[in-house]
Task: structure prediction
Amino acid sequence: MGLTVLRLWRGNGAMSRKLGLILASSLVATMATQADLQFSFTYADLGSSTGFYDPTDGQARRDALTGAAAALGSYFPAYNTTIDLAISSTGLSGGTLATANSFYPNSPSTGFLRTLVQEKILHPAGGDPNLSQPDASLAFNFAYSWGYSDSVSGSSYDFKYVTMHELVHTLGFGSFISASGQGGYLRTPGLADVWTVFDQFLADSAAGTHKLITADFTFDSTAAQLTQNPGVFFVGPNALAANAGKGIPIYSPAAFAAGSSMSHTDDSTYTGVDRLLMNATVNTGQQTRTLSSYETAILTDLGYAMVPEPEAMACWTAAGLVGLLGWRRVRVRQSRRA
Ligand SMILES: [Zn+2]
Result:
């Protein structure tokens, strides 16, 4: 048994430079008529013989990525949007299985932010806020044993499942709240900051009466139950309706795990056959590649029109290695003023 170590979410220069892009109203993407939300991929491995262009596994990896993206897109038939994703790979033993980076449009000084992906889907009239740049990025670690087919062995991680998980993060399923209560600009806790729309719906109890972020965009330290396992609940109206009036438990283990805490459904609540796609960890073996009614409700609260999954595909195997799934926010920076 082993436990992979989560690579913490950190901003970096290259990613930060992608931030702060302004809307260009003169450039409105023209897209063919489509059904479902679509994803397009730009591979950093193109031209190499590694990762997604590995001579042996590359084609299977690209096919699995495309298949998983189509599966997730089928939950969103209401949108004619193509999301541009930068795809890269690593081979670092002991790293995170996979990581999603979400980018954010030119950011206000305070408020609740949508990811670029979220903005592009929900407000297509604004064109493509990121122009030809990717809207988000995913990185996969091929040091692990992966299964790319629809029959994943008990010793491999389910690539399509992990892909769907990471793609859901890019849709805005993730928090900016740090262990100390800092937000996107890492301001002193207690000062107004930027947060995600997801954060807007986090509360310190299932009843949802006490939100973590106040109406003036400050972290409410009196509501800080970030390590009560679970002490944080998603309390949007659709989430409450989906969970008999109670908030949906969010991953908030006793040891705050940056990149995992606050940004996943709760692993201690949703266990065994009740595990959810957006739990913080994943076992080896075939997983259920579907969004539950809870995750659908959360995404609806984030602004999306959803359709429920017609049929669950439950193929559980014995638990093997547990891998952590990463979500890295890109640290936002304040927009420059001309
Ligand atoms: Zn994750």
Notes: The two ends are 55 Å apart (CA to CA). Residues 58-73 form the longest helix (16 residues). The chain has one domain: 13-187+251-329. The CA atoms of residues 138 and 162 lie 11 Å apart.
